[in-house]
Design brief:
The complex is a heterotrimer of chains A (about 325), B (about 280) and C (about 325).
Chain A lengths: L1 H29 L3 H6 L5 H11 L5 H13 L13 H36 L4 H13 L4 H15 L23 H7 L3 H38 L2 H8 L4 H39 L4 H10 L3 H29 L1 H4 L2
Helix pairs in contact in A: 1-13, 5-6, 5-9, 5-11, 6-9, 7-9, 7-11, 8-9, 9-11, 11-12, 11-13, 12-13
Chain B lengths: L1 H9 L1 H19 L37 H37 L1 H15 L3 H11 L4 H28 L2 H8 L4 H37 L11 H8 L7 H29 L8
Helix pairs in contact in B: 2-3, 2-10, 3-4, 3-6, 3-8, 3-10, 4-6, 5-6, 6-8, 8-9, 8-10, 9-10
Chain C lengths: L6 E14 L2 E14 L3 E5 L6 H9 L6 E10 L2 E2 L5 H8 L4 E4 L13 H12 L7 H14 L5 H4 L9 H13 L5 E5 L7 H18 L2 E6 L2 H7 L2 E6 L2 E7 H6 L4 H9 L45 E2 L5 E2 L2 H4 L3
Parallel strand pairs in C: 3-8, 3-9, 6-7, 7-8
Antiparallel strand pairs in C: 1-2, 1-4, 4-5, 9-10, 10-12, 11-12
The chains are: A mainly alpha (about 325), B mainly alpha (about 280), C alpha/beta (about 325).
């Protein structure tokens, strides 16, 4: 099993290299005057000249690429025009927010999607089943930025039961950074009221971001469950006296999960791209929001750096999904 | 073929999908001739700004006094054009590459696959965003960015399907009979890969519209005053919460359009390729 | 035939039909038999005669479109047909009635260890008061040893795909006996196995049954099997019981025309190997009365109006045939 994993991990390296190359080509080769672009629209000529020297733009392309790799490896992603800080610092500050939102969204999607799918499978052709099918069709057709606005309109402005923006209410001080995840950090510090408030701030962004995921997970769980329920071992399980609820929630569930896990990698990609607009609209200070701001003012250094980081995260997540799949289905590991 | 149509007719969701698509398509073609206020694509009418939905303006007017309904219908043309063009060119690039990579295999195949891996290492919107940022924002820029980021998906799908078909005995037989590989590839393998291509293209239309709308929302696609749906939603944000109709209806338009493509794609998938048939 | 107190299981006039798009399929028609304490009853018949349906009826596992139009299944004084799903799964299946499926390859869930799955039965049906996991493990290890699974303790942590067909069938026997049911239903448990293994499994089953005082309902189509381990047999044709009773007299002296014809087909008979002319009637349009009539050499016109009537013969068998209706 580990041999297979090592091979997969090794494959990731050239992909990363290729990604670096792609971004390099975009920033240096495609752009008309890379230095001017990278320096930003508001820079002076001398700043541009300085940057040109720093980037080694007069050197041959190959040397430039090596310089670029060196920069990346040492964590020098340049400076953001907007925050006037090193991009690396910006990224480090914002990463935990996106991680918290992603984890929450993933959990939320599974917690809602899987039971929905299972129930639809058990009660086929009932109201739940038809409702679910409708929901899964619609869920994949909504634009997440639009959904974000709709949720805000309904839950924050009209019903006033959920907060509009931000990770925490303005009046609240963030917790001491232990994990970087506000809800957990608040709990670790014993501030349960604050933890709850932070939790409510996660709900709308999570629901928006996870909407297509819930639809997909529910749909796949349903198919897998229907298929499993018709298998012979379910007949045997009933015949030897397993209670029905055990059959469904322990045995059929495990067999159905595998198809969900396959989706997780794909869904995470949706989260990452969706987070750009969702974080922006909900004022969630994560990577997506950072990228959004950078795009709005054409701040190139952060754009490239964030893209790279997102790529790395995505590759890692897919690798983890492969590992998890091997654990779930033992038949694979014997091959 | 008749079998196909019969199958599709029996399937209610497929009919719905085709119907919705027909509506959108009709809107896209009809455009200026259909809407009550065709000039509202570009003209501002500040004296009637922010009117809620009424008999004269069934979806209300936006912050510049323009009829939302008219702009929506006009926007359908843009949406469909972006979708068609993007998918078309993605196919032009992705399908041949996928075919060659899948059939001739080995070094070339591996290289193409690594290439697509690199492009697919980043979610589509993110990469498209990077491309679009470098160039000047416009509808063409959006289409270019979307094509560049979508062809790898096409390529991969065609690649795996080509490999699957190429492994079947009848291809071996053709090769043994001395059939030229170009002939095998285009006259025998391609027809068998076609169903997958069609399904992917249909689903791709829906996906493209969503990503294109996102680019529009981010200001990287269409520029004001173009009546592009994503852009309309972006512009509507400053008029919230009072002007809810300016945001809601464009989103519904996106929803209906993407839904129609997804329904058609699903129906095609069930009809053309029963192997892929999941319990519905 | 009477619903006797010392009968463990008494099936009386069981009639089951299934509603299909092509019409009603009358799978079982007035099937009757009894099983006494501690005996092995062989349920014999050709493929498609409804044997598996009998088992499903006892366990309450008939499909949704099945209708029980008449009959009773009296198990220890209770009519199983009157119980609902919850009652069946709580107190009957796995606890009082065990089950061994036909194809061991279709029994276990591939994602869980066999130990986990078999112990799940103990968890819900083990003896009250000692239903804990350790007691279950002890009992299971003991049974695995008796069914000759080597190194039972480490076998518990293996997955189903790591066992051969014969091993899985032994595991399933252990699973069926785990909670010491009163009755075990074995649905052609050796069909999917090779000949040598068949013998081992069957004798194992019979021996264990005798040892624990468990009755066995063995469904099969093989007379050879029957003659070896059954105490009594019930012969079915096209959903009807034709005769049932003690094995020896029935095998030595078959009386029902179908049984006679069937014995003549048995490959052990060296002088003549014959089939039975005709085909089994479709269950969608079964003949009225005795379903064997179209192929019966002794058939009479009155047979087609006949309801099932079991006559007790002096060798202890019950016979369902016109010719014996009035014979003492």
């Amino acid at each position: 099993m580990f041999g297979f994993l090592a091979k997969r991990a090794l494959l990731a390296v050239p992909i990363l290299g290729g990604l670096l190359l792609l971004i390099f080509i975009l920033t240096r080769v495609v752009a008309a005057d890379p230095a001017a672009i990278l320096a930003g629209e508001m820079s002076t000529l001398s700043q541009i000249a300085d940057l040109r020297k720093e980037l080694g733009l007069d050197e041959p392309l190959a040397i430039q690429f090596l310089l670029y790799i060196k920069q990346v490896v040492t964590g020098n992603f340049g400076t953001s025009m907007f925050t006037h800080r090193a991009v690396t610092l910006d990224l480090a500050l914002r990463l935990p927010a996106t991680i918290e939102l992603s984890i929450f969204t993933m959990l939320l999607s599974i917690v809602i999607g899987v039971p929905l799918g299972m129930m639809a499978a058990v009660h086929r052709n009932s109201l739940i089943d038809h409702g679910l099918r409708l929901f899964s069709l619609v869920g994949l057709a909504v634009a997440s930025f639009w959904l974000a606005i709709i949720f805000q309109l309904i839950f924050s402005l009209y019903l006033e039961i959920l907060p509009l923006r931000g990770r925490i209410p303005d009046s609240l001080i963030p917790p001491d950074p232990i994990t970087g995840l506000f809800v957990i950090d608040f709990i670790l510090q014993g501030q349960f009221n604050s933890a709850f408030k932070a939790f409510t701030h996660l709900i709308l962004p999570g629901l928006t971001l996870g909407f297509p995921a819930i639809a997909t997970i529910a749909r796949f769980t349903r198919s897998a469950a229907i298929e499993t329920l018709s298998k012979d071992f379910v007949v045997w399980e009933r015949a030897v006296g397993y209670p029905m609820r055990i059959i469904i929630w322990k045995y059929v569930l495990r067999s159905s999960i595998s198809s969900t896990v396959t989706q997780i990698g794909l869904l995470f990609g949706l989260f990452l791209s969706g987070s750009i607009v969702v974080e922006a609209i909900f004022g969630w200070p994560g990577l997506g929001d950072y990228l959004y701001n950078a795009v709005m003012i054409s701040d190139y250094q952060p754009i490239m750096a964030t893209t790279l980081v997102i790529g790395v995260i995505y590759i890692l997540v897919n690798l983890l999904v492969d590992i998890f799949q091997l654990w779930i289905d033992p038949r694979l590991s014997d091959d | 073929m008749k079998y196909l149509i019969g199958l599709l007719i029996r399937d209610k969701t497929a009919v719905l999908g085709f119907f919705l698509f027909a509506v959108i398509f009709f809107c896209a073609i009809g455009g200026e001739y259909m809407v009550p206020y065709p000039e509202d694509a570009f003209d501002a009418k500040p004296w009637q700004r922010m009117l809620p939905p009424s008999a004269e303006h069934i979806f209300g007017t936006d912050g510049m006094g323009r009829d939302v309904f008219s702009r929506l219908v006009l926007g359908s043309r843009i949406a469909l054009i972006i979708a068609f063009v993007t998918v078309f060119f993605s196919m032009i690039i992705g399908v041949p590459l996928g075919l060659f990579a899948g059939y001739y295999g080995k070094k070339f195949g591996q290289f193409i696959m690594r290439l697509t891996d690199v492009f697919l290492a980043v979610p589509q919107l993110v990469l498209a965003l990077v491309f679009a940022t470098i160039m000047r924002p416009s509808v063409s820029t959006a289409m270019l960015a979307l094509t560049i980021t979508y062809w790898p998906l096409f390529c991969r799908v065609v690649y795996s399907e080509t490999r699957r078909v190429a492994a079947s005995p009848f291809v071996d037989a053709l090769e043994a009979a001395g059939c030229s590989s170009k002939r095998i590839l285009f006259m025998h393998i391609l027809p068998n890969v076609l169903p997958v291509i069609i399904i992917r293209a249909t689903i791709g239309m829906g996906v493209t519209i969503l990503v294109a709308a996102a680019l529009g929302f981010l200001g990287l696609g269409a520029v004001p005053p173009t009546p592009e749906w994503g852009l309309m939603i972006a512009e509507s944000q400053r008029y919230l919460p009072s002007g809810w109709w300016i945001s809601v209806f464009p989103g519904i338009a996106i929803l209906i359009t993407v839904l129609s493509f997804n329904l058609i794609g699903d129906a095609l998938r069930d009809a053309i390729d029963p192997r892929l048939r999941r319990s519905r | 035939m009477n619903i006797d107190q010392d009968n463990l299981l008494c099936v009386k006039d069981l009639s089951v039909s299934i509603h299909t798009p092509n019409g009603n399929a009358y799978i079982l028609h007035q099937v009757s038999f009894e099983i006494k304490q501690g005996e092995v009853l062989g349920l014999i018949g050709e493929s498609g005669c409804g044997k598996s349906t009998v088992i499903k009826s006892i366990l309450g596992l008939l499909p949704g479109n099945a209708i029980v139009s008449q009959g009773q299944i009296i198990f220890k004084g209770q009519d199983l047909l009157k119980l609902n799903e919850s009652q069946l799964s709580t107190s009957i299946r796995g606890q009082r009635v065990g089950f061994i499926p036909q194809d061991p390859a279709q029994a276990f869930n591939p994602n869980f260890t066999v130990g986990e799955q078999i112990l799940e039965i103990w968890r819900w049906h083990g003896p009250v008061g000692s239903r804990d996991r350790q007691s279950g493990i002890n009992q299971l290890i003991y049974l695995l040893d008796r069914v000759q699974i080597a190194d039972p303790i480490s076998m518990l942590n293996r997955y189903p795909h790591q066992f051969s067909g014969g091993q899985r069938q032994r595991l399933l026997i252990a699973a069926a006996l785990l909670c010491k049911p009163d009755l075990v239903l074995a649905d052609e448990p050796t069909t999917a196995l090779d000949v040598t293994t068949q013998q081992q499994i069957l004798h194992l089953l019979a021996d264990l049954g005798k040892e624990f005082g468990i009755s066995v309902l063995l469904v099969t189509h093989d007379f050879g099997v029957v003659s070896q381990i059954c105490d009594r047999i019930n012969i079915m044709y096209a959903g009807q019981t034709v005769e049932y009773g003690p094995k020896r007299p029935m095998l030595q002296n078959p009386e029902h025309p179908y049984t006679v014809a069937l014995m003549n087909c048995h490959p052990n008979k060296l002088n003549s190997l014959s089939g039975i002319p005709g085909v089994v009637a479709s269950s969608l349009e079964p003949p009225t009365g005795c379903r064997f009539l179209p192929r019966c050499i002794r058939g009479l016109p009155s047979c087609s109006n006949r309801e099932s009537n079991f006559v007790l013969r002096d060798d202890g068998r019950y016979l369902n045939c016109t010719h014996y209706d009035y014979v003492i």
